[in-house]
Amino acid sequence: MNMTTPQTRTQAIQEILKHLTPLTGTATPPEEAEGRVAAENVTAACNVPEHACSVRDGYALKVSDIEKARSMKPVRLKVNQCIRAESRDPEPIQAGEAARVLTGGPVPPGADAVLAEEDIEQDGDTILVTTPVRSGWFVRAAGGEIAHGTTITPKGTVISPQAAAVMTRTRLTTIMTHPRPAVSILALGSELAVPGTTDPDRFPADNLVLSRGLLEHSGAAVIRTDVLPDKESTLIETLSADDLPDVVITSGGTGRSERDFARMGAGESGFTILVDRVNMRPGRNMFVAQRDQTLLFGLPGPPAAVFTCFHAIILPVIRHLRGLPAAPPVMARFTKPLNAKPGSEWLVQCELALAGSQLTATPLAGKDVPPMLGMAKALGMALLHGGDTIDAGDEVEILTTAY
């Protein structure tokens, strides 16, 4: 098969992103927005609290009434009402009066401080106050937690559970978020079986489990995983469907043998190749194609290559579709030396760990570490240029979703 000169990893990403825009924002209830990316700045729809409220169980009063209170000369105030968190429109406080108020209860008009219940002496329907306090004592002002119009989550930021809770409390009913990219994953090979099925003559399609986990951890929504046999017609029929999701990922069939027809199947299904091979190892024979709004990643079959292609190419594309900016570089110190072979950019599986505030990377490479075992332990990939010599203590860039 005649193949083009492979692009660098950076060139491949740039070429793909030229053809993509983030998924269009949709109105989303805050309680369903966790993990999505804000399509616009999300701001508080009201003050929290909406009205000044007490932060202690105690008594609301006028500071001016107790400015002369002393232990030997207490001030007596009449308690005229009890205010709870759910109370609305409490009666105003007049001179010489106080209101029993529970935590979260609105401070009544006329009151400008709250005394904790342990700081007063109760005497029937009156209280005795022995110490003056300043205005605002144990009172949370309207907007004291968050003011109306305050930005909760900026545009292009993932909405956290705690941010979604604050949005809900500020009475937002919908916010604009980018949808999670919808993905189908197809493992190509007549020797493969869907994971969980019992077939001693076939191998479980581990790439389906690997790809699904990586994608969901990175904010995508996997809507289908399946195994397709080595029949070009089956692949063409599948890829020719009118209802393909945002992203389709295939694994296997990208080499040069007579059973490697992933590229041909993509072309016969109306896809245009954007990237045909990438100058990196593992994963050199991957390709990327597009039809309408669907992006197709054709990955090699070995799981270590799928792991590499995800971190090197697919992850930045998923971030872009989600509405996220490019991830800043993550740097780690190598714990032992490593020499990269000349030629391609090499992506090396690494164990990652924090040593204090320093991220360290232990390469999982060499004859003593088979690729599949290394992948099981890896939390990221180190980027090495062909011919690089890395010494213990040197910093390298790491592609990871763990940090």
TrEMBL record:
<keyword id="KW-0808">Transferase</keyword>
<dbReference type="Pfam" id="PF03453">
    <property type="entry name" value="MoeA_N"/>
</dbReference>
<feature type="domain" description="MoaB/Mog">
    <location>
        <begin position="184"/>
        <end position="320"/>
    </location>
</feature>
<dbReference type="Pfam" id="PF00994">
    <property type="entry name" value="MoCF_biosynth"/>
</dbReference>
<dbReference type="InterPro" id="IPR036688">
    <property type="entry name" value="MoeA_C_domain_IV_sf"/>
</dbReference>
<dbReference type="InterPro" id="IPR036425">
    <property type="entry name" value="MoaB/Mog-like_dom_sf"/>
</dbReference>
<dbReference type="InterPro" id="IPR038987">
    <property type="entry name" value="MoeA-like"/>
</dbReference>
<dbReference type="InterPro" id="IPR036135">
    <property type="entry name" value="MoeA_linker/N_sf"/>
</dbReference>
<keyword id="KW-0479">Metal-binding</keyword>
<comment type="pathway">
    <text>Cofactor biosynthesis; molybdopterin biosynthesis.</text>
</comment>
<protein>
    <recommendedName>
        <fullName>Molybdopterin molybdenumtransferase</fullName>
        <ecNumber>2.10.1.1</ecNumber>
    </recommendedName>
</protein>
<keyword id="KW-0500">Molybdenum</keyword>
<dbReference type="InterPro" id="IPR001453">
    <property type="entry name" value="MoaB/Mog_dom"/>
</dbReference>
<comment type="function">
    <text>Catalyzes the insertion of molybdate into adenylated molybdopterin with the concomitant release of AMP.</text>
</comment>
<keyword id="KW-0460">Magnesium</keyword>
<keyword id="KW-0501">Molybdenum cofactor biosynthesis</keyword>
<dbReference type="InterPro" id="IPR005110">
    <property type="entry name" value="MoeA_linker/N"/>
</dbReference>
<comment type="similarity">
    <text>Belongs to the MoeA family.</text>
</comment>
